[in-house]
Amino acid sequence: MTTTFLPSEHPIVAAPMAGGATTVALAAAASAAGAFPFLAAGYKTPETLRDEIAALRGRTGEFGVNLFVPDGSERNAERIAGYARAIAGELSAYDLRPAPIPVNDDDAWGAKLALLREDPVPVVSLTFGLPPASDIALLKRAGSAVVATVTSPAEAREAEDAGVDALIVQGPGAGGHSATWDPDRRIADGSTVDALAAVAAASRLPLVAAGGVDGADAVRVLLDGGATAVAVGTLLLLTDEAGTSDTHRRALASGEFDETVVTRVFTGRPARALRNGFIDRHEREEVTAYPEVHHLTRELRARAGAAGDTDRLHLWAGTGYRAARAEPVARTVARLIDGL
Question: Which UniProt key words apply to this protein (predicted)?
Fold first, then answer.
């Protein structure tokens, strides 16, 4: 079965997971298994992204690249400083101190856009918002289909008006960062199929559904609900080819954690993770300030991961995390398409 929008044998998308989980090996294995793979450009230098594109291009012909869209908003430095003080004890556990000035950046948006214009890939997806329509047009003129990630009908209508070719509809059960364009928004519980139906009523673009997928039954429901394809991320975190840290893998598989929660404590943007001690200690103090909080806690999280400290690590996980298996990517894809 070839999807009507993404050129893959099966209607499964290997979602881009920034921070190391998505590797070239994972993307190549997903492609070989008949799924459509994405590379995650988030947090990478343009040079690293260029090298990964070249490496994956040598192993598969069709793939996408996901970009984080900077919002350019001014943040409240006083509130960020207050949050830094609130987590100072966590930092001191690893002999760290808060940076005196909040770090803000645009994730090298201009350089990555230039790279993708000069060396186009089949699909570019956008997360956290929309860039100027002129940037979307530049990507399309370079030969890429452009896909916006949306979480509501209003976002879908705006993305369609901006000229994107398709939409990824992210439900509230998705692991890691919510794609909501409004980082102050509270992510309410709900199903991906309901989010899909709401967006389908507002847009005629092809739709890829994402969030909370825990197996073939969920894939069938979303395809029957109008999705062209279904994206999975959390289900790939334990696969052999994923770059997931040992500490994160152990937490997902341990049974020690019994719920996920949407939190801003790690990055200043809503993201779904396994509930751990860091969340419990600081959820009342969280601030909306991305990427400043991301940079504030980045080294702490790196040290926690290296030390096996699940209490302070951002354990990203969607609501379907219990269905993740330690197995090759090909086996996970086979389980997802069983019966289609």
Answer: Detoxification, Dioxygenase, Flavoprotein, FMN, Monooxygenase, Oxidoreductase
